[in-house]
Structures are given as structure tokens and as C-alpha cells.
């Protein structure tokens, strides 16, 4: 678990803690999420899509923004068990290198690529996102699907991404962010911090911080889009998935049992109807050419 900060709240997790979390939980998380390990995207309150469909929908939104094509080299930073990387390779024809700090993730992702007959196009490797084992300018694009939430320093992570991107290369990521006024209720702040700690996630940032973070890393922001109104249903689906797994098998891994317990007393209809104090953004950026290319940054 993350060490506490001087505020008494949990801080950022270590790479070892993140790897151990996914080694212990990745199979059940992938089952609960319907084959992925990331949030889903629902069209609205009347959308009855299952987790698998909603997860693939969000994957496709990111793939469309990445604009990768045949022959491109793409880094899937925080590849999970391989769902998005395999889907990206099939949709784009790009060569995909996926990395995870979890050896278990890498093994499961590699098995998925082999089962899809994509071993020659997609490979998965054990690596630390904060210290990537690749030369400068190795990749045409980087996909970071909720992986930045686990990293101790977003600015340093973006700088490492910029290092391995070729000039003109494109980054698409998703991140959990705080929204609206700062939470003043100490109980609610601690509840959020404890949930992040269970998931081995770092404290959240705000969307407004990204232009400065990107600029310091040598990246240019092209788009920041808040998709919370489409992803906010994810928490209820996670709770339902843990409940169903518990009913079927009679037990959950300890971390997921804690997550299930945290959701047991939530009124999920009320939760999804309320204004969300935290949520999800898509960030699109690029590494400019030597003389800069300007920015067509927009906020959606």
C-alpha cells in the first residue's frame, strides 16, 4: 500500500506495489471488466451495454484519436492483459509493443496475442513506465490507457513518453481527475484516498494541470475531453462484477473484497445521477518537430 503523506492520506504507490497488485488480481479484474482492464464508455443512462461492449467502445475512441497506421510503431504503456493492444493492432495494422510492471500482465497479454495469431505484430514486455528500456524517438505513437494513474509523478512520466516519441509522434491517454470545487468534507476525502490506495493509484490531478505538465515535458496538447458523463457508470459495473464473482465462486482476492465492501452500501442510481466530483479525461498531445508546430489545443 502507498505510504501516507504529511496530510495523513495515502501517497503514490511504488512500481513494486502496482506490479504485485496486478499479479494478484489481473485475472479476476479482466473477468469482471469483460476482457479489458479499463473503464467503460456508456452512451447515457438508458444504455444497457455490458462491461465488455462499453470497454471496447472506449478503446475504439482512443484508437481513433491515435491515428496509427500500417507500419507505425506504437507503445501501449501499461498494457494490462493485452485487450487494447491487440485491438489496436488488428484495427490499424501498426506494430504494437505493450509494457507492464506486472509480470502476470505480460504473460496473459502475450498469450492473448498468440491466441489471436498476432505474435509477429504485437509483443508485450516487462518494463517500468518511468524508466523505459527504449531508445529516444523509438515510437510513432503512445497509448496510455489509465496507466498514468498508477505513476508517482505525472510530469516525469510525460517527459519519459516524450523521450521515446518521434518528432510529430502522438500521445493519447486517459486519466482520473478531480472535478469542481475542492472536496472539503474530510470523510469523503479520506474515502476517495482509500479507494485510490486499494487500486494502487496515485492522488488525482485536475484537467487544468495538463497544459503545464505537457509543456514542461516537451509535448503540445491537442485535446482535453472530459468523458465523465459516459464513464461514471463504471463503478457500479465493477461492484456488480465483484458481487457476481463472489456469488459464483464464494470468494474474492483480498483487494477486490475490499473494493466490493466499499461499494456494498452505495446507492448506485443516486451515485450516477449526482454531479461527479471526480471523473475521467482523454488527453491527446504530440511531440513537436524541432522548430515547433504550434498547437490546435481545444477543450471539450
From TrEMBL:
One of the GO BP terms on file = methylation
Q: What is its EC number?
A: 2.1.1.-
Pfam families attached to this UniProt entry: Methyltransf_11 (PF08241)
Which top EC class applies here? Answer: transferase
Q: Where is the Polyketide synthase-like methyltransferase domain?
A: 29-276
- Spell out the SUPFAM superfamilies in the cross-references: S-adenosyl-L-methionine-dependent methyltransferases (SSF53335)
GO MF annotation list:
methyltransferase activity
Q: Does the keyword Transferase apply?
A: yes
UniProt entry keywords in alphabetical sequence: Methyltransferase, S-adenosyl-L-methionine, Transferase
Q: Which domain of life is it from?
A: Bacteria
Stored PANTHER family: GERANYL DIPHOSPHATE 2-C-METHYLTRANSFERASE, ZGC:194242
The name of this protein is: Cyclopropane-fatty-acyl-phospholipid synthase family protein
Amino acid at each position: 500500500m502507498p505510504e501516507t503523506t504529511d496530510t495523513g492520506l495515502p501517497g503514490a504507490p511504488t512500481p513494486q506495489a502496482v506490479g504485485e497488485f496486478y499479479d494478484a488480481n489481473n485475472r479476476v479484474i479482466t473477468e469482471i471488466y469483460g476482457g479489458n482492464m479499463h473503464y467503460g464508455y456508456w452512451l447515457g443512462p438508458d444504455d444497457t451495454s455490458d462491461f465488455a461492449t462499453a470497454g471496447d467502445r472506449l478503446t475504439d475512441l482512443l484508437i481513433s484519436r491515435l491515428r496509427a497506421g500500417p507500419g507505425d510503431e506504437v507503445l501501449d504503456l501499461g498494457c494490462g492483459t493485452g485487450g487494447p493492444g491487440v485491438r489496436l493492432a488488428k484495427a490499424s495494422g501498426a506494430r504494437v509493443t505493450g509494457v507492464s510492471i506486472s509480470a502476470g500482465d505480460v504473460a496473459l497479454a502475450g498469450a492473448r496475442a498468440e491466441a489471436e495469431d498476432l505474435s509477429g505484430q504485437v509483443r508485450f514486455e516487462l518494463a517500468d513506465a518511468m524508466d523505459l528500456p527504449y531508445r529516444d524517438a523509438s515510437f510513432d505513437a503512445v497509448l496510455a490507457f489509465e496507466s498514468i494513474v498508477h505513476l508517482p509523478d505525472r510530469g516525469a512520466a510525460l517527459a519519459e513518453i516524450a523521450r521515446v516519441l518521434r518528432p510529430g509522434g502522438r500521445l493519447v491517454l486517459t486519466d482520473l481527475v478531480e472535478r469542481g470545487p475542492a472536496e472539503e468534507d474530510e470523510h469523503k476525502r479520506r474515502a476517495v484516498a482509500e479507494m485510490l490506495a486499494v487500486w494502487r493509484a496515485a492522488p488525482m490531478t485536475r484537467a487544468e494541470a495538463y497544459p503545464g505538465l505537457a509543456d514542461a515535458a516537451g509535448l503540445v496538447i491537442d485535446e482535453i475531453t472530459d468523458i465523465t458523463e459516459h464513464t461514471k457508470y463504471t463503478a457500479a459495473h465493477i461492484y456488480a462484477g465483484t458481487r457476481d464473482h463472489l456469488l459464483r465462486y464464494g470468494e474474492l482476492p483480498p483487494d477486490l473484497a475490499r473494493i466490493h465492501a466499499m461499494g456494498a452500501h452505495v446507492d448506485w442510481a443516486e451515485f450516477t445521477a449526482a454531479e461527479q466530483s471526480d471523473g475521467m479525461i482523454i488527453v491527446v498531445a504530440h511531440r513537436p518537430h524541432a522548430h515547433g508546430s504550434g498547437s490546435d489545443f481545444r477543450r471539450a
